Amino acid sequence: MKPHVLVALGFAVLATPALAQIQRQDPFADADTNRDGQITLAEYQASRAARFDRLDRDRDGVIRMQDFPRIAVRGDRGADLERMISAADRNRDGALTREELLASPPVAFAMADANDDGVLTAAERDAAKARLQDMRSARR
Ligand SMILES: [Ca+2]
Ligand SMILES: [Ca+2]
Ligand SMILES: [Ca+2]
Question: How far is ligand 2, taken at its centre, from the CA of residue 121, in Å?
Fold first, then answer.
C-alpha cells in the first residue's frame, strides 16, 4: 500500500465515527458523473466540491457554522457539519474553504478503494456500503 493511503487510513480510523455520521447516505451517490459505473478519484473530488457549493449558500467561498440558521443545524445535522468543518479546517480559523475541503484526505474514497488503484468499482462501492451499515448497526 502506498504511504499516503496508509496516512489516509490512519486518519480514517480516528475519524470513523464522525465519518459514518456525516455520510448517512451513500457518499458516492452523485459522484459517477460520466455514468460508467466506476468512480475515479477526480470524480469523487468533483462531488466533494459540489457538496461544498451546496453548503456555501451565501457564495462567499467559505463555510462556517454561523452561516447556518440555528434551526437548520439542530441536533445531528449540526454536529455532522461541525465535524466536517473541524476535520478539514487546516488553519483552525473555524471557516472551511473549498481548498481546505479538497486538500483534506479523501477518507471515504480511500477506505472504499480496496485494491488501491484510484478507481471505485461497483463491487468496491457495495462492499464499502455494507461495511458502513455494519458499523452503524454495531453502534445501535
Ligand atoms: Ca465514472
Ligand atoms: Ca480554515
Ligand atoms: Ca479500486
Answer: 33
pLDDT tens sequence across 10-35: 444 444 444 444 445 577 888 999 99
- Its pTM stands at 0.71
Cα–Cα dist 111/117, whole Å: 12
The alpha carbon of 53 and the centre of ligand 1 are apart by a number of angstroms equal to 20
What's the total number of domains in the chain?
A: 1
- Tell me how far the alpha carbon of residue 18 lies from the centroid of ligand 1, in angstroms: 27
Range of the domain at 42: 3-139
- Which ligand is located closest to the Cα atom of residue 47? 1
Beta bridge partners of 62: 97
